[in-house]
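Recap for those who missed Tuesday's class. We walked through two folding examples back to back. For each one, the amino acid string is listed first and its predicted structure tokens come directly after. Nothing is annotated here on purpose, so try labeling regions yourself before you check the end of the notes.
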Amino acid sequence: DPDIKIVFLGGSTTECLYMEEDQRFPYLVGRQLESALGKKVNSYNGGVSANESMHSLNVLMNKVLPMKPQMVVLMHN
């Protein structure tokens, strides 16, 4: 049960498909915040290649909001 939940939504630049999972920036943000705050942080990477803002808003309203995250980061190019 985390103290903080952060969800990252966006396209391929958020997904970071070709990077190792522990090198993707949504994961690294969670680990750095854990170190800085001394709290358990779960960061979720909801990036999907070819997504547009419409897709991310759909996911936000139908999947992410029921999770009750403390923060959502929306990133599209």
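Example two. Treat it independently of the first, because the proteins are unrelated.
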Amino acid sequence: MAILILGILLWVLPHMFKRLAPRRHLMLMPQVRAMVAGAVLTGVVLMVVGYRMAAVIPVYTPLPGMGHANNTLMLISVYLFGVSGARSVLIDKIRHPMLTGMLLWAIAHLLVNGDVASIVMFGSLGLWAVVEMVLINRAGPWKRPKPGSIGGDIKNLIGTALIFGLIAYVHIWLGHNPFLGTYP
């Protein structure tokens, strides 16, 4: 569990620094930014390793059929992650598409995993996404980007299908088939 918590901290703290001390963040040299990015990436690896190593201590039993809700929320989550990059029609309608996607990702996983490690990891990252949205909203008004296009949506839908397929493949490879409801 310590590895999992360290990974979460290596994800959350650099992201929070960016919001809590934006002027200092902007003054960071490129080398320091690269080190921070490395810390975040290390955090992701440690979260995966720590989660896989953590003992399964049940807290609640997920309701039957939640695998379908999980898969639906995951599709929406992956789509939201791509809204900005693909310049989807939603780009000027949702202020925080990636953070909203992250929150949906966390909720989706809490629907199908009721153990302590899942609550710690997915709960922490979902809470982080909400705090980030609040901090960004408090920093000032939203400058809406230019409207997106249907072409951007088509690119995003194709990307969503490919990324969702890759995520499902990795989960199956790790022994957790999201389509058959085999979760830890």
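Answers for example two:
Helices lie at 2-20, 22-27, 30-53, 66-86, 97-112, 116-139, 150-173.
The chain has a mean pLDDT of 90.
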